[in-house]
Amino acid sequence: MKKTSNTAAESFGSDSFSFATTIAALLFLAAKFPHRQFNGAELSVLSGIGRTAISQIKNAQDTPFSLGKCTLRCLDGWLAKHPGFKQQ
Prior knowledge:
With about 90 residues, this protein is mainly alpha-helical. It has one domain. It has four helices and two strands, in the order αβααβα. It has a two-stranded antiparallel sheet. α2 crosses α3. It is globular.
């Protein structure tokens, strides 16, 4: 039983590390390559906006998304024009 709890703790630790590494990699890409386009899930992590709100933005008439992708700069510009989508 003790061995099972250790493996569960180890797997949780590696998942946390992998998630933190993914966020760091996305932030690096966004900073280094400002014209890189990200998909909705990546933009959700980068911007802190929920996936439901990202879906609503994708479905808006004046969406900044093209072929399911958008730059972080374009999303920020769109959010500046539509303050109702910003999270407080």
